[in-house]
Amino acid sequence: NSMFDTVFASRSILQKNSNYFLTSCDCFGEFNFFNFKKFVKKDNSDLTLFAFNYTNLQKNLDNSHTQLKVENNKIYDIDVKKKYKNSLLGHAGFFWIRNGSIFNYLYSFKSSKYFKKIKREVLIDDYFKFLIKNKLIISSYFLLNNYIHIGSESEYLEYIYWYNYFIKNNG
């Protein structure tokens, strides 16, 4: 029924594992794995979300994205499925889970006022927002070098146009 229902049904697997990637999106992003390994080793967060800077097309589309509110390289809030706001980073739908114990709060989330007020599909982003706002975990972000979101026809067509353009002119 929802992305969150899938996470909830998988909780026993998610809770007992550590140091893994989780994805929830129809996108892909590029990053330097060596730099990410250094980041994870230095960073002490329970959860790392992957972020991107919006393209001009994404800024002007009528669809909604999850956006990260950050301060001092830490996330203090998440705007789930909101229209683009100037200066916020987009969330790419990839997560680094340091310790699966962050999924120990699933029942608390399901009984929260926030959960009960959601009038759309409940996303894993909503769960992480709940954790962050209630200061149950420490979270950070890692900025992607390149990010492609193909969640709408116009984004997909733009991607195909530029892909073909560069293949034709550089290939």
Structural features, described:
This protein has 171 residues and is α+β, with helices and mostly antiparallel strands. The chain contains eight helices and eight strands. The chain has helices spanning 3-9, 11-15, 33-42, 56-60, 106-110, 113-117, 124-133, 153-170, and strands spanning 18-23, 27-30, 47-52, 65-71, 74-82, 89-99, 139-143, 146-149. Strands 1, 3, 4, 5, 6 and 7 form a six-stranded mixed β-sheet that branches. It has a two-stranded antiparallel ribbon with strand order 2-8.
TL;DR?
The chain is of the alpha+beta class and 171 residues long. The chain has helices at residues 3-9, 11-15, 33-42, 56-60, 106-110, 113-117, 124-133, 153-170; strands at residues 18-23, 27-30, 47-52, 65-71, 74-82, 89-99, 139-143, 146-149.
Q: Which keywords apply here?
A:
globular; 8 helices; two-stranded antiparallel sheet; alpha+beta; 8 strands; 171 residues; 30% strand; 38% helix
> How many individual β-strands?
8
Our measurement of the CA-to-CA distance between the termini, rounded to an integer number of angstroms, reads: 44 Å
Q: What is the overall pLDDT average?
A: 87
**Main sheet summary:** 6 strands, mixed
Number of helices: 8
Q: How much of the polypeptide forms β-strand, as a percent range?
A: 25-35%
> How would you describe the oligomerization state of the chains in this entry?
single chain
Q: Give the helix/strand class.
A: alpha+beta
Query: Helix share of residues?
Result: 25-40%
Radius of gyration: 17 Å
Spell out the helices and strands N to C.
HHEEHEHEEEHHHEEH
The backbone outline, from C-alpha atoms, is globular
Low-confidence stretches: none
